[in-house]
Structures are given as C-alpha cells and as structure tokens.
Model the fold of this input.
Amino acid sequence: MWGGRFTGATDPLMEKFNASIDFDRKLWRVDIAGSQAYARALGQAGILAADEVAALVDGLDQVAAEWEAGTFVLHASDEDIHTANERRLTELIGAVAGKLHTGRSRNDQIATDVRLWLRAEITALRGHLHDLMRVAVDRAEQEIDILMPGYTHMQPAQPIRWSHWLLSHAWAWQRDAARLEELQRRVNVMPLGAGALA
Done:
C-alpha cells in the first residue's frame, strides 16, 4: 500500500501505530457491501466489464462468507479492514481486484463504511428505543394504581403514581427518538467523490 516516494520498509512501530484493524474489523460487512455497490456502479458507468463486476461481487461474497463463518484469516500486513478485504479478494480473484479502487480513495471508502455502519446502528437503536417506550406505556397502563414516593431535594415529598413517573421517562425517550431520526437523516448522505488528493 505504501508505495511511491517511499523506498525503505515501514518502521514496525509506525505500522503498529497506524493499524486500525483491531477496532475497525467490525466494519467488514459494510466495507464489503459498499465495495459491491461500487463495483456495480463502475459497471453501470461502463468503466468495468460485466465479467469484471461479476468477479468482484462474487469474490466479495466469498470474503463475506469467510468473515461470517469466522474463518477469515487476518495477516500482520492487514493495516485496516480495507487492506484485509482487498488482500483476500486479490488472493481469490487476482488482479481484477485492484480495479475496485478506480475513482475511489481510501478516504472515500472509510467515510462510506462509517456512514453505512452508523445508519444500521442508529436503526437498531431506534428500534430498541421504541420497544422500551412501548413497554413503559404497557406497564404504566397495567400498574396505574401503584403509588411511590415523589422526591424533592433528596427527600420524600408526596405520593405519586408509578405510571406517571414511568411515562415522564417515556417522553424523554420520545425526544431521544426524534434526535436519532434527525441524526439518521444527516448520516444517510453519500460521501463518495470527496476527491482526496495524494
């Protein structure tokens, strides 16, 4: 990966400092999905032949199957999730794997991966939050007559309904759900084409 004006070997300390595979390995699924979509887009644009697109997509399916099965083998040279997947893809399908970066920088790739991952995580979080609100409303209805002490200044002040206290949190969770919806709109933007320069 480090070519061009660099002629000597990379210092092992720099390799260790620069490696992100330990924490970005969780991006394997979105990295592969983004690369498959990009390969198809290159085919639709006439940049790749149909057989090249098929080789890339099928090869990436094989890489995904290895990750899914827990058989994907990381190498010491796999600096990040992109180099790991690209190395394995090259082992599987050969030189055509290198065409996957036509017009796409690694900066584009990680920005896309992170947005795809966030989009999925926000969707899951929104679902969990809605489940929590539904349970709160159900419990409030079922336990409407349960009383509990209401506190002020760390001291019991007056009796309140458990259901009212519970639903006070549900309103806050509803605001959180609205914030997540707004965040998802902001995250769901295609970052490809930023034009990173060397």
In short: Strands lie at 147-152, 155-161.
